[in-house]
Amino acid sequence: MDWRLLKAATSGDVPSLKQLLALDGPGVLLGITPQGNTCLHIASIQGHEEFCKNILTVDHSPALALLSTINKDGETPLLTAVARGCAPLLAAVLLRRCRDQQLMQTILKQDRRGCNALHHAIHIGYTKLALELIEGEPAMSKTVDERNESPLFNAARRNFTEVSHKLLEILDSADCGPLGVHVLHAALAIHGDEELDTLIKGTIVGGGVILHTHKSLINKTTKE
């Protein structure tokens, strides 16, 4: 990667970016670091929203290539923006750009730990972004990470009711957690009978995912 581009991306220096583009053209944006990061990765790590927007909208921008490039951590710029926990608004911008470019596989990408952007959004607590990710690509709900944790399991564990209910509306949304436990186990163990009852009712009313858990948990709530 050109050192001038690296410096501009790190600091979010839009005027320097425009000057570099005027001198070398948009092809300069395709340079990568030894870690496999593009200028879009680097600006995403730093949370430089305006810099990223300029990269993606410049004339003849290699936007598709930049959005799709995977670094050595297995991260696209979208994954990087969410996982680093500093740029939820930027992540939403990148999500929309991926949708505009019909980059569904880029949106679904998992990092080397098996997490997709939805896993990270829920883990960090970006509930608004999580809802937008679910709306933008419902198939993200089917993925489990290396610990066998689904987005639904993590949402229930964090007591993110709105996110949990949105995931329950997806027919084949994954519901598993680590060591053979499931989302209803998490709801009962961490939040008690009230949250368990809410999740079960949400499943029935929404007509969505059927949770593969022990019947004793469901029977317990039904009897009460």
Automatic annotation (TrEMBL):
Signal sequence segment: none
Highest taxon of the lineage: Eukaryota
SMART domains, per the entry: ANK
Gene Ontology MF terms in the entry: protein heterodimerization activity
SUPFAM superfamilies the UniProt entry points to: Ankyrin repeat
Name assigned to this protein: Uncharacterized protein
